[in-house]
UniProtKB/TrEMBL annotation:
The name this protein goes by in its record: Unannotated protein
Amino acid sequence: MLSFGPVTYMDVQKTGCTFISDVLKKTLNLQPIVEIKHGRFDRSKTADDFVIISRRDPYSQWVSLYNYGCMNLGWLYVRLKSFGLSDQLYTRNKEGLNAFVSYLLHSQNSHLLGEGYQQSKHLDLGFQSYRYLAMSLAKPSSVYQHFKTPADLMENFQNYSIINFEIRTSRLNSDLNHLLTQVIPQYVRKDVSVKEIIAGSSFGNESIKFVSVDDLAPSTRGLIEIKEKLLLNLGIND
């Protein structure tokens, strides 16, 4: 979470958040007040809050998460290593990718992932959808129980979401430009070129591409379609 006071960015993992944070810091005429990497919105939203989030399709998000772990990087890699699973899952090939995704999408393994994931176990959410959900709610740990079933979540998610604007990774530059020039121009510095800053900003730690989305097996894709329905539904018109 990167909060500038009236503007807050919810930085979901593996959605270009380093790049987006860099652009916002360089373009907004506001100073960061709170910066907690991947933090939650643990207060009530007010009428003065404008909340931004970034979203990525879950297929490429899972692949990016796997590639990052294959570099021995990331909180999830460290956690899986502590359970003695890193050598088994991070094999840097398509077999390892499919084993990794399938293993972590099964509900009985939710305890391996941390981040409060088990609080949403009754919703049968994939990990990427859970991360998005957790960062799109105010005081999320107290809200999950409002959704009684997976179908209830799909139907009523928007009633609880605090998000005012989504930056889609598939349209990263254009969504950022639209946000800054058309949606919240009152918060943008007058002495900068939004287009130039977007063009010159850093993506941070980019993963080596050991595997790609094309390496996802049909069975793995099918599992993602079932478990990551929240993200897929949100992106249906992307």
